[in-house]
Write a structure and sequence with these properties.
The protein is α/β, with parallel strands linked by helices. The protein folds into two domains: about 5-130, NAD(P)-binding Rossmann-like Domain (Rossmann fold, 3-Layer(aba) Sandwich), CATH 3.40.50.720; about 130-280 and about 305-325, Dihydrodipicolinate Reductase, domain 2. About 35% of the residues lie in helices and about 25% in strands. The chain contains nine helices and 15 strands. It has helices spanning about 20-25, 40-50, 60-65, 80-90, 105-120, 130-140, 175-190, 280-290, 300-320; strands at about 5-10, 30-35, 55, 70-75, 95-100, 120-125, 150-155, 200-205, 210-220, 225-230, 235-245, 245-250, 260-265, 265-270, 325. The strands form two sheets. A nine-stranded mixed β-sheet has the order 14-13-12-11-7-10-9-8-15. Strands 3-2-1-4-5-6 form a six-stranded parallel β-sheet, sandwiched between helices. β11 (about 235-245) and β12 (about 245-250) form a beta hairpin. The N and C termini lie far apart (about 40 Å).
Length: about 325
């Protein structure tokens, strides 16, 4: 990559989420997807033809050895995120790893240690964090638009009926909290600008022991309480609300971008969000970080805090007790 040229990306798998990265790369001059890898070479070649990519690799190792790839997008199942992120970093690639990196904070720290040793950028792929709507919501809360915040409510879920879906695999770290609930955790931590000190969670488990529904309460040191709800067994729901002493702020599509609604003093104000591709903005931020022009929006501290909270929620759900976040 030259100082002004695009970051050349390789896709580590042919997962469906790649479509969003391909569209994002097409929307910015900062990124160009050039290669894809699969453990099945014919699948990689078919994918490359379908998406007009220059090269197809029949193994992940081959893609990491490709000198014409500057960065890799790890879109593998959750349980493979950190191992392949680390291998990508050790191969000299920048890494965008699909969320969540892990539910193990020590494992996340290990990945960032590898990034520091390699002098490369590692970023957890919470694309919604790059959307201007998210920044505007944070700004309104910080500026006291709803007064003193008391409660945050976040929900994300949908019906997942395919029992073979990897998101229902215990071996691959599946579960509603890992797949969609992590957004709710991220938003609560972002809007409080703090880490929770205690959590309580209840979960409904599948026959294989994977959470298909999890509801949790996060308590913060200043008294703010966040309530999260994530699931694979109900109709789709995406919501984020902040309640304060002076009003309520609602994001009607917090994870994709839409509009904010501010209700206070008997009046309602609609705050539109610009129509942007958050994945393009994510790729632009990582490219700027790779050049040394800007810090990555999401770094070590955020990713470790995220994993620590997810781990605590799982401990609470397993024990039936509130647990401290440690």
């Amino acid at each position: 990559m030259s100082a002004a040229g695009p970051l050349r990306w390789g896709l580590l798998s042919t997962a469906r989420i790649n479509d969003a990265i391909l569209a994002g790369a097409a929307a910015t001059p900062a990124a160009r997807v050039t290669a894809v890898a699969s453990r099945d070479r014919s699948r990689a070649e078919s994918y490359a033809r379908a998406h007009d990519l220059e090269r197809a690799h029949g193994s992940y190792e081959a893609l990491l050895a490709d000198p014409d790839v500057d960065a890799v997008y790890v879109s593998l199942p959750n349980g493979l995120h950190v191992p392949w992120a680390v291998r990508g970093l050790e191969a000299g690639k920048h890494v965008l790893c699909e969320k969540p990196l892990s539910a193990d904070p020590a494992e996340v720290a290990t990945a960032f240690d590898a990034a520091e040793r390699a002098g490369r950028v590692l970023m957890e792929g919470f694309m919604y964090r790059h959307h201007p709507q998210t920044a505007r919501m944070v700004e309104l809360v910080r500026d006291g638009a709803v007064g003193v915040v008391s409660v945050i409510r976040a929900s994300f879920g949908f019906r997942l009926d395919d029992p073979t879906d990897v998101r229902l695999s215990p071996e691959l770290a599946g579960g509603a909290l890992m797949d969609v609930g992590c957004y709710c955790v991220s938003a609560a931590r972002l809007l409080t600008a703090a880490e929770p000190v205690q959590v309580y969670a209840v979960a409904r488990l599948s026959d294989r022991g994977v959470d298909v529904r999890l509801s949790g309460t996060l308590r913060f040191e200043d008294g703010v309480v966040a309530q999260i709800d994530c699931f694979f067994d109900q109709a789709i729901r995406r919501s984020l609300e902040v309640f304060g002493t002076e009003g309520t702020l609602t994001a009607h599509d917090p994870w994709g971008g839409g509009r904010l609604e501010l209700r206070r003093h008997g009046a309602t104000e609609d705050i539109p969000a610009p129509v942007v591709d958050a994945y393009a903005l994510e790729l632009e931020n990582l490219a700027a970080a790779a050049r040394g022009d800007a810090p990555p929006l999401l770094g070590r501290d955020d990713a470790v805090g995220q994993a620590r909270t997810i781990a605590a929620l799982y401990r609470s759900a397993a024990s039936g007790q509130a647990v401290d976040v440690t």
